[in-house]
Design a protein that fits this description.
single chain; alpha/beta; five-stranded parallel sheet; 5 strands
Amino acid sequence: MDRAEFSQRINALTGLTATDQRIINYFNKHFESIPYSTVIDICNEINIAKSTLGRFMVKIGFSGFRDFKESAIEPDLHKNRSPIERFHNHKSRNSNIAFIEKHCSDTIRNINNTLKNLNVEELEKAIGLIGDPKKKLYVIGSATAHALAEYFYLLGRYIKKDIVLLDANIANLPHKLIDSQPGDVLLAISYYRFSSVTTRLIKWFYQNRGDTVVITDNAVNPFSHFATAMLLMESQNSGLFSSRSAGFVLIEALVNYMGEVNADELNGNFQVMESLFEAFNVFNK
């Protein structure tokens, strides 16, 4: 069931109560993240009893909230499949060069689709938040997304002094977040199958600290209604692993644009960084 069908079921209802309308408003606003929510989470946010939500589910044709979730989530996402489970092991394989050409073609398509489908309003919000020199920026990415987060951090340190790179070790997060303050910003990168640590951090940061910018590859995810701005990237690939290329390009574009926005501060930062490289003999001469 998608949004359109949900709206059709709502439109067919009569005699809606004020509580029914609150539930409808919540579901309309957070439809993409509902499949990942629990009954307790939803009821706490709407401030209703579980039985009240259950009765509403019956009104729109479901036996309960679990039945609704089973209907709303895409089959591939519902199973939370690993790469090997979704991989099709073809009997006839491409030649070496044909495989590389196909991979490059997939990558180009992902980049083009990411650019074509970027929400300009969300992009402007994201750039405004991560580029604001007055806001401390925290960055996290779990598993393969950590490489993108670290890349953003390493280049971002040339431009912005207050950046903290977080890792997915949940025991370390309190140590890294101890100095965080209301008004800070979190940049989180999360691919399907969506790290539970990253998801919890996004929710906590949004509720306790400030704005969150989320970069992900699927609009249906567990954190969309805790995102101040959300940027979607394509990650389709016919091979064993999903592609991270479009995400890398997007991260690279964001950090370079930060440099454009903060151009006046760059010279001093670069001089300090270069002097440190020199002091530690980082690069071969």
